[in-house]
Sequence to fold (503 residues):
Amino acid sequence: MVELVPSLLRQELDRLAADGQRIDGRGQFDGREVHLEVDCLYNAEGSAKVVWGDTIIYAGVKFEIRTPWPDRPTQGSLMCGAELRPVAHRKYEPGPPSPESIELGRVVDRGIRESGCIDMEKLCIVPGEKVWGVMIDIHVLSDGGNIFDAAGLAAIAALRTAVVPAERFDVGEDHTLLVNGTPIMASFKRAGGRFVYDPSEEEELGGDERIHITLGDEGHLHSLQKGLKGVFTPSEFAEILAVAEQKCSELREMVAEKEGN
Amino acid sequence: MGGYGDVKLLRDDGKRLDGRAIDEMRPVTIEAGVLPAADGSAMVTHGLNVAVAAVYGPMEAHPRKIQRQDRAVIDVRYNMAPFSTGDRIRPGFNRRSREISKVTAESLESVVLVERYPRSKIRVEIEILAAEAGTRCAGITAASVALADAGIPMRDMIVGVASGKIEDTVVLDLDKAEDNYGQADLPVGILPNTGEIAFLQMDGDLSIEEYNLAMEYNHKAAKEIHEIMVDALKRRYEGGEN
Fold:
């Protein structure tokens, strides 16, 4: 479906930005309310549900046993995919994975992979013969804006609560998956000429470029992505990076709290 | 239906492995209006099954070749999430999900007043998040509540229920083990107010008497589930919050 960007919406976003306001009354760097639930799906070895404003996303972790790549006989693998199914919004249509859903899956994948939170060597069962393949599937059920941050949060929370189903595959006892770190994403969107944190659906429709930043526990960058048309300045990036540091540590605490339960 | 005879599914006390009586259904919960982006939505848990349905429309039907001059078309997609089953399933349509989508659409067309919306399309998206036998029935129930939540006029809702046969005994609402090792499965979609049937599939082996008993169980369960559906819609619209 072709999305029309009403010029009135753009004008309104410009007008609000001039007054330092946002269309839903939030401040420039205020996020919406976030609810996280873990271990919520039967059959998934790890699962999480994130309700982030009007956005609802599930992530599920599944394991399979596969033969390792010949050049990495002792390493398992990790894959993160996303589906923007037509259930999530009237703008999504059925068919093969869209460029948008591929981008979403890959940006989340890079943040988790590059943070090094999964030690691929630990996924080895028999060197050269059997390794675990870990698959995270992100399922977007309702797109109310900022699906990237919600997907990233659901994915890492599902991964951190996953149990390796060794008994089902007859290769030992079930054990929790070792995850050393909690990479978290923070996304910004240019709306009304300046960057805002956690864009709503309307800001996504009437805004310009977006920037996704994934930070690890030490505050290091693990994945960056700029999407859509637009350019930004180094000082704009410095400003949103400082906001990202704060937002990511808040969400990391939320994940830790849920794991404790 | 495989493995008849090699797996014990009924206990010595006549109860089933999970402790249910032969005519007892798994617990069902329903919530309406769960997805903010959709025009109507519902989540159904039926035992360990989780089904979510979203309704979009009525909207313009495109491409134009799918348009019907005298009625709306109902476009149903039944889809299992990759993590909904024991082994991960590859994303995307397969033969099973295409068939279920087709017959579900046809059953919903039998109750929705499609003639009110010529040349338009009503999209019904059914997503299975967790599967433990009986997902198509949970999906039909969820779709009915989502259509009602979207305010789309219907003659009646459809309740998805199934009965089957294990160890030569007719039982209501097969679970995973019973579905895998049982002898028959009879999923139906029942219009609770008239008792008419809008959805019917069956596989396995049933005598006419067994079919009649299975249907009796299905009608009984449909009444129970219908009450839960109505209750979900009342909760959604009572109090004027929405």
About this structure: Residues 208-237 of chain B form the longest helix (30 residues). The first strand of chain B starts at residue 28 and ends at 32. Chain B has a mean pLDDT of 94. The beta strands of chain B are 28-32, 40-46, 49-60, 73-80, 120-130, 159-166, 169-172, 184-190, 197-200, 203-204.
